[in-house]
Amino acid sequence: MVDYEAGPEMYQDVKKKGVVLKDGTLTLKGKMTTPGFYRVDVKAYVGGKEYKGACAAAFSPEKLQPTTVMPKDFNDYWQNAIKEARKVDLNPTKRLLPERCTKDVNVYEVSFQNVQWNYRTYGILCVPVKEGKYPALLRVPGAGVRPYGGDVWTASQGVITLEIGIHGISVTMDQKVYDDVFNGALMNYWNWGMDNRDDSYYKRVVLGCIRAIDYIEQYTPWNGKDCGVTGSSQGGFLTLSTAGLDKRVTCYGAVHAALCDHTASLKGVACGWPHYFYWNKGKGQELKIETSRYYDGVNFARLITDKQKGWFSFGYCDDVVPPTTAWATYNIVTGPKEISPYQATWHFWFQEQWDEWVAWLLKELNVKK
C-alpha cells in the first residue's frame, strides 16, 4: 500500500492515499504545458515503517526564466554598502591551530571586522607551507550554525583557502554551543529584518563575504589573479552574491543555490528556500517582497560578467532548493558557465558530484599537477 503525489513540483495536483499496487507496480502519466519539473513522491508503509522516494522529469528546463524583478538601484545599493563597510578597518586576528596543521599546510582561525567596529567574521584559513604566491578559494557556508574545519586538502594542492562562518562567533567551539545558539538566539535567522533591506540579517552576511576577499587580498600570499568562491544551499546564494558584487572573483561554483527566485510562488511556480511566500501567498507581505529582491540570488547572478566562469550543479529531487529555481538561475547568467545536474540527488551530493566540483575549481584556479 502506498501514498503518492504527482504534478508540478511544490504544486502537485494529484494526491492519492492507500493505493494497493497490483503485482507491486504502478504506472503514472503526467504532462506539463509550460517549462518546469513534474515530480512524483511516493510513500510506502512496511512493517510499521515509512519509506519514501521521489523522481522528477524536466520539461524544457533551458527555457525557464526567473520571476524576480531587479530593483533599478540594486547594484548601486550594494556597492555603496561595500564602500561603507570598508570604512571599518579589518583589524584582523590570526591564531595558529597546530593540531590541524600538516607538513604542507598551516591552519589558522582568523577573524576580521565586517560592517562595524567589533563585529567580526570568523573563519579557518589554510595556507601552503611552501613560500610563494597562490590562487585563493573562499568557501561560504550553508544554512545553520556550526564549527568549521577548513579546507586543508585543497590547500595541500597549492591553493589558499578561507572557510568562513557568518554569525560573528568563533568557528572552533564545541558543537553543543552551536546547537544551543541555533535553537535559541539565532533561531530562524533567515527571516530576520526582511521588512527592510537595511535590517535584513543577510546584509552583513553578504558584506562579510566581500570583506573576506579583502582579507585574502591584504593578509595572505594570494597571487592577485586567480580567486574562486564556492558553496552549497545558502552557500550557493552567497557564492552568487559574492561573484556578482566582486570582480576579483574569477570563478565560482554554485551548488543547489538557495534564496533564488523568492517571488516565483506568487505565480504558482516552485520557489527557492526559505520559501518566503509559499505559505502566505504574499498577502500583506509587500515590504518583504520588495526587500526579498535585494537578497535574491537571481539578481546577483545578473551582475556576473563574461570574465567570471561558473559551475552549477543540483539535484532533480531536491525538495529544499527546487531544480526549477536552479535552472532558472543558471539560465539568467550571461557569462561563461557549465551545468552538471544530478537527477537522483535530493538536498545533498554524491561523491562523484563532489569530485567533479573540486576538480572543476582546481582547473579554473589554474592549479597545475
Describe this entry's structure for a reader.
The chain has 369 residues and is α/β, with parallel strands linked by helices. It is 25% helix and 25% strand. The strands form two sheets. The protein has a nine-stranded mixed beta sheet, sandwiched between helices. α4 packs across α5. The chain is globular and about 70 Å long. It starts with a strand and ends in a 5-residue tail after the last helix.
Q: What's the mean pLDDT score?
A: 95
Apparent shape: globular
Report the helical percentage: 10-25%
Which strands sit side by side, in order, in the main sheet? 5-6-7-9-8-10-11-12-13
Distance between the termini: 54 Å
| Coarse structural class | alpha/beta
Number of helices: 9
* SSE topology string: EEEEHEEEEHEHHEHEHHEHEH
User: Uncertain regions: pLDDT < 50 for 5+ in a row?
Assistant: none
| Biggest β-sheet strands, sense, barrel | 9 strands, mixed
Strand content: 15-25%
Please tally the β strands and state the result: 13
- Tell me the radius of gyration: 21 Å
Nutshell version of this structure?
With 369 residues, this protein is of the alpha/beta class. It is built from nine helices and 13 strands.
